[in-house]
Amino acid sequence: QLQAFGGGLVQAGGSLRLSCAASGRTLSMYIMGWFRQGSGKERELVATIRWSGGSTSYVDSVKGRSTITRDKAKNTIDLQMGSLKPEDTAVYYCAAKFLYDASYNYWGQGTQVTVSS
Q1: Which residues touch 82 (CB under 8 Å, ≥6 apart)?
Q2: Over 90: is that where the pLDDT of 26 sits?
Q3: DSSP single-letter state for residue 87
Q4: Whole-angstrom distance, CA of residue 22 vs CA of residue 10
Q5: Which residues, other chains included, contact 111 with Cβ-Cβ below 8 Å and sequence gap of 6+?
Q6: Secondary structure letter of residue 100 according to DSSP
Q7: Distance of CA 20 to the CA centre of its chain
Q8: 115 and 84 in contact (C-beta within 8 Å)?
Q9: 54-73, pLDDT tens digit by residue?
Q10: Which of 20, 43, 83, 92 would you label with 109, given CA atoms 20 to 30 Å apart?
């Protein structure tokens, strides 16, 4: 089970931290990701982190101003986003997939992020 929280309204140029709490399974063989979907847009993979090892990846649009981290003790992943832009406005979802699976199988509920200009 994944539960995301931390969304809200923020002014352009500001920062926000999203958190996702995972429960119910051991995550050592999983990749965790943050997706987002803006109004009228396709869902987009924003950032990923491999639970074991901590390797990360980012979509180009957030690279350099976002950081995804995981806390093994708390079983949480965070997405710290800075220099926010109106185009970052979206519903953000955390998700997980087994290391060798092609797609993400486990999804949390979305959390709305709205960036005002």
Answers
A1: 14, 15, 65, 66
A2: no
A3: G
A4: 26
A5: 4, 5, 6, 7, 18, 91, 92, 93
A6: T
A7: 8
A8: yes
A9: 999 999 999 999 999 999 99
A10: 83
Closest of 52, 34, 42 to residue 92, by C-alpha: 34
* Residue showing tokens 């800075």: 82
Look up residue 71 and give its two tokens: 């806390």
Predicted pLDDT at 28: 83
CA distances from 55 to 5, 40, 52, 58 (A): 23, 31, 8, 11
pLDDT tens per residue across span 3-23: 999 999 999 999 999 999 998
Q: Which two tokens stand for residue 104?
A: 């993400």
Paired with 47 in beta bridges are: 34, 58
Structure tokens at 37: 């979907």
Torsion angle, alpha carbons of 105, 107, 34, 42, to 10: 80
In sequence order, which ranges of 46-96 are alpha helices (DSSP H)?
none
Give the Cα separation of 48 and 34 in Å (integer).
6
